Amino acid sequence: NTGGFTFDPGFTSTCSCESAITFIDGEKGQLLYRGYRADELAQKSNYMEVCYLLLNGELPTQSEYEEFTDAIRMHTMLNESLKRFFTGFHYDAHPMAMLSSIVSGLSAFYHDTTNTADPEHRKIFARRMIAKIPTIAAAAYKYSIGQPMIYPKNELDYSSNFLRMMFAVPAEEYEVDPVAAEALDVLLILHADHEQNASTSTVRLAGSTGCNPYAAISSGIAALWGPAHGGANEAVLKQLSAIGDVSNVDKFIAKAKDKNDPFRLMGFGHRVYKNFDPRATVIREHCHKVLKAYGGDTDGMLELAMKLEEIALKDEYFVERKLYPNVDFYSGIIYKAIGIPTNMFTPMFAIGRTVGWVAHYLEMISDPGMRIGRPRQIYTGATERPYTDIAGR
Ligand code: SDX
User: Fold this and answer.
1) What is the ipTM of this complex?
2) 278 pocket-lining for ligand 1 (C-beta < 6 Å)
3) How far apart are CA 30 and CA 110, in angstroms?
4) Ligand 1 in contact with 323 (CB < 6 A)?
5) Could you tell me the distance, in angstroms and rounded to a whole number, from the CA of residue 280 to the centre of ligand 1?
């Protein structure tokens, strides 16, 4: 177990590790969190309960749930001096830049969680990280629109607290819309973990060096930002806006198939799922429920997305390559409907995925046999050769 990684030379682009947290069957389109179906948890559980499950391996009893949620509430605020970190950014900095920087900055604050050999340190780190990520994300958004940061209100549930920190202003009372809070909780559950995806593998590799745990999580945020990964949800909405109308769908599908064009249909395809991404199915159904509560598909984005899916899944290029909608294809439609701005879509993914990063980090760091991760390569460069003076070159 080298930081969770074993490298099999037969596979040039993947390395694998052992984990008991999440199981994916890509052919069947199955996703299990500690043995429970993620889509069933999305319908019957809540994000805090799923966080407990991912961290501890079992669903909590009532008293365990209350102790856990109380502990999370205790950690939702930021150290006041952390607020100065935001002012160093230009107002239009991308929230993901602020999120990764400020999470890394937590490593300069908390010395009571750096001894990861101590189970108590590990527990405080997990609860503090899960509690603070929404506060930091909402504060980044507020900074970008020139509004004051809103402090957490701990009588609210996790999702409602975040929405209030995002949209409340000091001058007025703010009532969280339960439809938005419920939709957000479902999305956080479905984004919570996903086996050895790029950002989780980044957290494990960084963490295997023994670096500060908050810095390891910050490396995962940086990896998630890319459009091939968590940045795809923001790219999907931009792409749907660019398509604009069903009459343009064929043109964009042709572009996606053109090997001379780097353009890809964002929100489609997956390294592991060669069947429907079960998360996309739940999110698509939830789109209907949320949009109905907000006056319907007024901008036509859902209708356009569903038409795009229908046409693509009949096209030989997509069928042959088993390219189905993934978790990012429909999530932005819900985020938009509940008022989340496009540049906050990937931070939303990061909020949900933080528990997965923390669970994998703790699983790895708690293993006494853990060693630093050290993937190898297939060398394709020059063979050994003698130095030549510049005059002779
Ligand atoms: C996430 O790993 C995870 O679990 C990630 C994630 C998680 O929860 O952590 O599920 C979250 O990152 C979802 C993916 C979000 N990204 C996108 O939606 C971006 C668009 N998708 C593609 O870039 C791509 O599908 C990936 C990155 C998701 C997967 O890349 P792969 O497995 O390396 O696929 P590939 O590049 O090898 O593609 C195989 C073929 C290629 O064509 P050929 O060379 O065989 O002719 O499929 C084509 C690709 O050109 N292809 C696409 C395509 N995705 C793959 N063609 C057009 N549009 C696409 N979206």
Assistant:
1) 0.96
2) no
3) 38
4) yes
5) 15
Is the beta carbon of 73 within 6 A of some atom in ligand 1? no
Cα 293 to ligand 1 centroid, rounded to whole Å = 33
270 Cβ below 6 A of ligand 1: yes
Q: Is 322 in the pocket of ligand 1 (CB under 6 A)?
A: no
Q: Which of 266, 321, 331, 355 to mutate to test the pocket of ligand 1 (most atoms within 8 A of CB)?
A: 321
pLDDT tens sequence across 133-176: 999 999 999 999 999 999 999 999 999 999 999 999 999 999 99
Are 47 and 54 in contact by the 8 Å Cβ rule? The answer is: no
Q: Which atom of ligand 1 is closest in space to residue 321's alpha carbon? A: 47
pTM for the structure as a whole: 0.94
**Cα 340 from chain centroid?**
15
Spacing, Cα 321 to ligand 1 middle (Å): 10
Dihedral of the CA atoms 204, 206, 212, 216 (nearest 10)? -70
* Residue 279 in contact with ligand 1 by CB distance below 6 A: no
- Residue whose Cα lies nearest atom 33 of ligand 1: it is 271
